[in-house]
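Suppose a classmate hands you a notebook page containing two proteins, each written out with its sequence and a corresponding row of structure tokens. How would you begin to make sense of it? This section walks through that situation. The first entry is reproduced here exactly as it would appear on such a page.
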Amino acid sequence: MQLTGHGTPKTLSDTPSRRRVTFRRLLLAAIAALILGIVFAAYLQPAFVLDLANRFILCL
């Protein structure tokens, strides 16, 4: 723990890099949740998923 100029302790949780890491984790979690939601929605439309798979295979 470091002391700032006023004698108050500066914790590691107050550093900008720590906040940046927390924001990045929240952003990655939100993106992962969005991708999982899209995959779940795709399972509700099996004909659409089959159509996309057929188009992908035909492009190869």
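The notebook's second entry, a different protein, reads as follows.
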Amino acid sequence: MVGEPLGSLRDFRLLWFGGLLSSAGAQMSAIALPLLVLRHTGSPVEAGAVGTVSMGIMVVSMLPGGALADAVERRRLMIVCDAGSALLVGALATAVVLGRAPMPLILLVAGVGAVMGSVYTPALFGLLRSVVPAEQFGAATSRLQARSATARLIGPVVGGAAFAWHPAVPFLAEAAGLSGSTLCVVFVKTRSTAPRDKTAVFDRRQLTAGLSFVWRRPYLRTTLLVFGLGVNFAFSALIFMALTVASHSGRSGLGAGTVLSLSAAGSLVGSLLASRLTEGTGRGAVIPFTCWTCAVAAGVLAVDQGTVLMGVLIAFCMALASIASIAFLTTMISMAPADVTGRVQSAAGFVSSVVTPLGPVAGGGLLSGWAAAPSFAVLASMFAVCAAVVTWAPSTYHSGRTQGTAVRGTPTAAGWPAAVTPEEI
């Protein structure tokens, strides 16, 4: 398998295409769900509750989802997630066609979808290790991220247009995409079950094994706390502030749409370039460079808040953030043995996601108290502090330069590290 192009790996092609189908459908329904609530209730509060419920349940279920992905045969688990989601979304589509889509059903679909995603993603990365050689994992991750970025760029536009045609169409499309994804995973030949002890799946030690693994490794710990937690928080505040300023506090949708479109394009470009720009020692340098670039971009926006300038700067930062995220994820998964892969991925997702919803609140608070210029200046200072830490902290300064090739532990025949002992987690 070593040396084969990713496109020649049958199972990777199936996983990639199946994920594209489900991701596109999910992005279509993501815009359609709140629109459906608004159509039936006319209440923005209830429409917003859909996103709040989904985000909250996703964060809460991440650690259990990773533990489950490390305890069950991963391909089978992915099939259950896709098939179960397809049935539930299909039920919602049927209810919409019949004109009977109650709020509890809508919230159920949003909540179950979040849980399934929290289980499916770590199972996917665990299975991917068995599908792809270690030296090609970074390229595989880049392609998966590019697939998701493409779905985020196109899905909401298509979903909005489909909803205008008939409210049930986006949900029918998602159900069809999930069904197609189920079939793709069914035809995957690779099997992946992590070796584990006989402790209960949701035992506290099992749930926190991923967090413990990251915490015991200084480079991973510092980078995740600063880049995953701090920079994610500041970046979500930056995007919200840019959208608010570009839309003239909600009076114009053109400026906000321009910023959103450019940021989505930046994410796609970064995902496509990630595997080429993070080879070798470049993987360790991209995170500090991204943080410093965000600091400079926020500083520029403190001087000039032109819509096109904001869109271009955020697109550039988004591209770098995508590259940096892929580089860190590749390093982290490469260091994690098979028996904790799902929990390590979920731990990183949990830490990165837990404060992200607070970013827009903080950005709104800054704009409410100050003008745009000093608000962007505050964010520039936050990015600069994060950049200084990941650049000069001993745990990242010395380790970051070797993360392009370093893999912890004794590699197996496939190039992955061997399993950890219970004492290590």
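A careful reader of the second entry would note: Residues 10-41 form the longest helix (32 residues).
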